[in-house]
Structures are given as structure tokens and as C-alpha cells.
Specification:
- The complex is a heterodimer.
- Chain A is mainly alpha-helical.
- Chain A has 2 domains: 117 residues, no CATH class; 69 residues.
- Chain A has 9 helices and no strands.
- In chain A, α2 packs antiparallel against α3, α2 crosses α4 and α6 packs across α9.
- Chain A is globular.
- By secondary structure, chain B is an alpha+beta fold.
- Chain B has 8 helices and 29 strands.
- Chain B has a 16-stranded mixed sheet that branches.
- In chain B, α1 packs across α2 and α1 packs across α3.
- The chains are: A mainly alpha, B alpha+beta.
- At the A-B interface, α2, α3, α5, α6 and α7 of A face α1, α2, α3, α4 and α5 of B.
Amino acid sequence: MLLWQVLGLGANKAGMEHPIPRFELSEHQFLALLVRAEPVLRGYARTLVPDWDLVDEAIQEATITMWQKRDQLESEDGFVPWARVILRFKCLRQLEKLRSRQPILSDEVLEKLAERSERRDPMELSVRERAFHSCFTQFSREHRELLLAPHHSLDSVVRLAERRGKSPNALYKLLARLRNQLTECVHLRISTEAK
Amino acid sequence: MDSHELICRYLHGVASEEEVRELDRRLRSDQALQEDFLVQSELDANLRQEAQLGSRDDVQQASSDESADHWQQNHRGRRMTVRILLALATVALIAVVTQAFLLPGSPQEIITVTSVSGPIAWTGDGGHVTNAIAVGEKLPGGTLELLSPDASVEFAFKDRSALTLAGLSAMTISNDSLNAGSEMQKKLYLRHGRLSARVQRQPRGRPLIVSTNTAELTVLGTKFNVETSPESTRLTVKEGSVRLKRLPDGKEVDVPAQQCVFASLENQNALPLQSLNSPVNRWQSELRQDVVMGKWTSRLWGIGVKLKKAVASGKMSEQEALKVYKQTAHLNDSAGSVWTVSSPVGALLVLSVGRSQDHPVHLQATSSILVRGRAFSRTPVKIGLNVEFPDGGFAGKYSTTIPASQFAVGEEFEMELPLNKFRDDRKTDVSPVGLELTDWWLVAKSSSGKFEITSVELANAPLRDKP
């Protein structure tokens, strides 16, 4: 069975087929909700699509659809789950494009990740985002440069390796270690704040 | 390899097929690993945002005398700026969407977009630029620019005249009107690229006008294709007739159905009509002539560079080098290669089939594309074909992706790509068999990708099956 069938897209999930509009959403309100939810949606799309260009395309397309279908939204609280359903569909379309270009995870695993991601609390994610920024600044300049390198261009890690006289593979290993340290730092900071 | 590293490699798009299979296997049952995958994806999203904020500059600033506190303060300010920019961008998007879908037709609207594919920029009134062009959108006068060889946009006027821009093209739609009644005269300026049109009969005295750098076309109602570069215009008429005026000298010719004409700045003597020849199913690129986007270098130039290096390194005297160069100079300098050029959408190379081939080139089920060249970077490459219907009109763009693993830096490559490997993203089940090949193109995903192409060929049977 295809992922979109498993996920129930196109069916009556999230009230998409027969919505009962309960409140009007002005442009300003829509904008505010979208800006607030954007980091959560970006992380969610990233879980499904391992290519940032396609993530951006999915988010752009989803934003237009959200605006067109905003009368289906029943409350502000429902914005993130509703937006995720629309975004999931757009991500699946982008995945079809990617499938011919590079190996990607199976539909079954992507479905599990999507479901798990949908259960996450958006508030928890924003706490995590704040913790990330505190931790990121603690890294040295060189390490921050490496952490950001994959997000500048596809081959920037390779170029960085050339500049530093190391092999790309060694740098990818270091990158994985740095990300691990960053993750640990985020965990630690969140648990300290909770206390 | 540990699971964490596998996740990183997957998210960065560098995991091999085997690694992805292994990660998939581990993720199926390991819930902790699934959680880790989500955390890593979120971390990646944060890092991406950090990179987009220009943290590199900040990193450099931080390395200077600035205190970490100051850096953080500055950074928070920038974050806020980006938030505001995001909001403004969204407002702009909403305005576009509102105009496109909610407001009743305004008298300024000239065309309706019927299909969009690939990166496109629209410059409207007041120089407002947007990349968010959607199907169904109604646009006033402005400029459409296609930013990649695999981009296309189809649009229609109110009278259902349908036009397609394909490949690297730019066209301005004029807001000018003759104010004759309610119907405007359609005026287009094709700056560069390829336009296919199916034009309904136009009102008396108000033909559709297509201007290029070198020619002006007057269209009453017909099917035609026009391809233009800064120096030349090629018009092919499939149905009806089109009048072409060569701009430098004002010379005019009526081009009837199944004829074509070529107007260039170089040759100003005559404007001979050519019959559309019977189709062929083979094509061998003449790189120097065919290149639309890419850097042509002659073999002679390459030899010159090698000789200079040999002299510089002391392997050859200057006299010996000059002797070799003079001997080589007798050779035909049409031999050479084309190199990809950088663009915002990647490294590009585009060849136009019609520039060196007088006959229409039709694709067959047994057709194969043979590409030879040399890779100077290891990056995935998309190779594509733009095609038209034999009776006129844009038919689509078909492409296939070659993974980075197929290339070795500095090494020559030779690829044979059967036609059934090529797919149209929009119509995955439609085959290009029977369609006319107009362009061949290559896009390397990274703009720093560097490829030298020495030959492109369309053969009519799998080349490797030849005895």
C-alpha cells in the first residue's frame, strides 16, 4: 500500500473534505499563525524529505494551499495539525521527484516517522529551538563553520575538507560527532531548564 | 557505521543506496532511533535556518574581538529581521494568491497561466519580482523569465490563443493597447529562448506581434515556433502564415505553412524560405553551432594552453611549441568541446538541435542518447530533452538523473541513455516516442559543478548492440 493511502490523505482526515467553518481567519491572523508554526513545519518536512530545495518547494506549495483552504480551519489550536496534513501531501509529491535521483527511506519507515513527528508537541519544539541557539553559540568558530557547511551547498563539506587538508570522509565523521555533541547540549539544557 | 552517522549522511544526501537500506532496516523496529531521527531532522532545520541567516558572517565576526554577548545580541536582531522578512514575503504571497484566486478579473489581466514547471521569475509592474507563479493565475503585462533548461510555462490569452515558453527563455508581455474597442492587441517581446504558439484568428488590424532582437513577426492566426538568440531568429510555421520583418534592414517575407526562415544579424542579403524537410531519427551535435548555454572552446585553444604549460615547465622550448601550434592550426577549428556555466539553478549546458540540423529530428522507441565528456566534479547531473509535437507546439521536457557516483573527477565518461530512461515529471506515463527533439540539456545540481562535453548524439538503436 502506498504511503499516502496509509496516511489517509484525500479522505476525511482533519476535516478536509466537509469542513464546518467555525471562525474567520483574517490575513493578519493567518500570517501570525504561519510565522509561529514555520519552524515546526520546516522540521516536519525535513523528516520526510532529505533535500532542502524540495522541502522549500513543499512548504511554498503548502502555504498557498493553506491560504486557499483556510476556511476549513476550525480553531487556532488546530492550525499546526491541519497544516501538517497539507504539508505531508506536498512532501509526498516532492518525494516522488527525489526517488529517481537518490535513495530514500521506504514508505513504511517514512510513515512511522511522520506519525511520530505528528505526535510531538509544538511547544516542546520551540523550547528545543531556543536551547539549540544557546548551545550553538558555544561551539568554536571552526566547528560552527563545519556544522553549517552542508547547508550552504552540496559540495561545501568537500571544499572545506580541501581547505583544511582533510578527507571529506573524515570531515563527515567529525560533523556527525559535532551534531551529537550539539544534540546532547540541547538535551542537557532542556532538562536543566525543566528543573 | 553507527546509526547516528547514518542519519547524518542520509539527511545530507550523501548516503549510498546500501547505507540507506541499512538505516531503513534499523529504523523499522527501533523506536529510540526513530526519535533520534526526528531530533536530527529538527536540528538540521535549525542549522539550515542559521545558515540562511548568514551565520558565516557572524562566525567571522565572532572570531574577531567582539564579545560573545554582543554576537548573540546582534544575532537575535538579525533573527527578528528574518522573521519580519518572512512575514512580509508571506504577505506578498498572499497578495499574489488573493489576486490570482479570489478577486474578479481586472481589466489589466492579459494572460492566464495554464501550466508551470521549474524555476520561473515574473517581473510585474513597478519591478515587483516573484517566483510564486501558480496555475490559474491571471497576469498583467510584465516579463516572464525561465531560469533553467528544464523550466516551462504555458499560458493563454482571453481568446484562447495558447503559448508556451520553454527552456532558458525570457519574454515581455506588453501592456500596450491600441485602445481599439475592448480587445487589446497582443504584443510580445521574446528576449531569448523558444516560444511555441497556437494563435486564434486575430481581429482585423490588430495582429499579434512578436518582436525579437533581430525580427518582428506579424501573426493573424496560426501555429508556429520561434527560437531567438541575441544575433538571430528562426521561425518555423506549421499552419497558416506569419510575416517576418528583419529589423536591421526592414526586409520582409511571408512564411507559409511547413516552411521556415532564419534571420540573423550576420547575413543581411536574402531571407530564403526553407521547406520543412522530412524527419530523421539521428542527430550528431555540432557543438560550436548548437550551443545555446555553455562555453565553447576549440581544440586549438586547448592545445595552445597545453603548449604554454609545456613551455612554462621547461618540457618544450618556445620555438618547438610554436612549430607544433602552427602545424595544428591547419586543422579545422570547429573541433572542440563545450563546458557547463554556473547559474543560480546549477551548472548548465544547453544545445539546440535545430541550429545544425535542417531536418526535424524525431524520437523513436529504439532511440538512445550518447554523451561523451569529462567530469571535473562529482555531483549528480540531470540530462534532459525538450520536445515538440510534429505539427507544432511544445510537448514537454523529459529528463533522467545521473548519480554523482557515475563520475570520477578528471576522468572521461561515456553514457548511453536509452529513451525509455527519460521521464516527463508532469506526465510520467507519456512517452516521447514520435515527438520532435528541439533541445538537449544538462544541469549539474551544484552551481560549482564542472563538466566538459565533447559529443552528444542521438542514435536510432542501442549503440552497444551494434556489431
